[in-house]
Amino acid sequence: MSEVSRRGFLVAGGTVAASAALIARGGQAPAQAAAMRRDAEEFDEHSYLAEYTVSFDGAHQAGISTPHQAHLNLVGFDFHAGASREDVQRLLKLWTSDARALCQGETPPGSLEPEMSASPANLTITCGIGPRVFEIIGEKRPGFLDPIPAFELDELEENWGQTDLVLQICGDDPTTVSHATRHMVRSSKTYVSTGWMQQGFLNAHGTSGESPTPRNLFGQLDGSVNPRGVEDFAEQVWIDDGPDWARDSTVMVVRRIRMNLDTWEELDRASRENAVGRRLDDGAPLSGGGEFDDIDLHATDDYGLPVIDRNSHAARAHPPAGHPEQRLLRRSYNYDLPPVPGDQLSNSGLVFICFQKDPHEQFVPIQKRLDERDLLNEWITHIGSAAYWIPPGVGRDRDAYWAQSLLE
């Protein structure tokens, strides 16, 4: 798991109780929970977020196993025509240095706005590399970056498609996230242009209740089956074989999902829970137990009928027998935009982000099942799709940079 400051981990849980539960699931030491309780006694509502940081250095990039922050700017970039391997190297060196400074609350070189970076508020900046970059640098593209296929129900829009690079910028203060985004865009204009930006949000800390799992705009706890410990992350997320440059990396898939809230809100609560396969209040499977208990697809009611609809979202996403590898880390954010004139009233949805070792063994088979018969398909439409290799972290070497093991 990425290292989060004591104060940062307190905020990430929203309350001391929720944070302690999250740490327990992640296998953190009891001493850290005790430290957080001490920090709670020092709580200052006027400054408690300002100094919280997430460690930038480590084996993995921050912003993956990091607990969700409240705000997201996801920015796609494309290299200018004629870009070279040296251009890729220069940009990633520059970005790594600037991102490290911003995430630590320091002023990057060239910035005239030190006040804007003084409150990191759990800022993380995560860099991803698209398939075409391998062509630019003259290296063979790895199989895990083969194109994600279009599914039958997709209505993909070109303006939310694949780009050469992506920055996932997350934090708990929207002004800090905005400034970090602007700085990273401004510092890179010699090499790349901005393709798109997807903005998202989650609950403000302290408002999400006891579960650390965030809610989407359907009211659903989204991510109940996420990996919750070191072993789960090793099995599902971190690449541990293949070329040396890929070790400790992962693959991000981004899907932009439009959600039709107007027709969803016409359903009664029982119909909504039937489509999801889980209770909306606490995320527990309709077969019983708590949010993090396994669903029982064989459970029946007094009439012998399945308790969980076989075409519900939870049932279709569940790994079939013999395929435990079909699991991944979901780290999604909601979006809510002004209505499009003449279109449906809601212009809302999900910036679906997931991390895994290989999308073609994990995301693709899951999404294929969902595309075939997920009951939620009546209220959602996939309108964007992209995939990126997320290089490993930079370790403890302050001169290291993203993707150095590949580029050198």
Automatic annotation (TrEMBL):
Annotated Gene Ontology cellular components are: cytosol
Cofactors named for this entry: heme b
Tell me where in this chain the Dyp-type peroxidase N-terminal domain is found: 61-201
| Keyword Heme belongs to the record | yes
Q: Which InterPro entries match?
A: Dimeric_a/b-barrel, Dyp_perox_C, Dyp_perox_N, Dyp_peroxidase, TAT_signal
Which intervals hold domain Dyp-type peroxidase C-terminal? Answer: 213-394
Recall the GO molecular function terms of this protein's record: heme binding; metal ion binding; peroxidase activity
Q: Does the keyword Cytoplasm apply?
A: no
Q: Which PANTHER family match?
A: DEFERROCHELATASE (PTHR30521:SF4), DEFERROCHELATASE/PEROXIDASE (PTHR30521)
Tell me which family the UniProt entry assigns to this protein. Answer: Belongs to the DyP-type peroxidase family.
Q: Would you tell me the protein name for this molecule?
A: Dyp-type peroxidase
Q: Which organism is it from?
A: Corynebacterium yudongzhengii
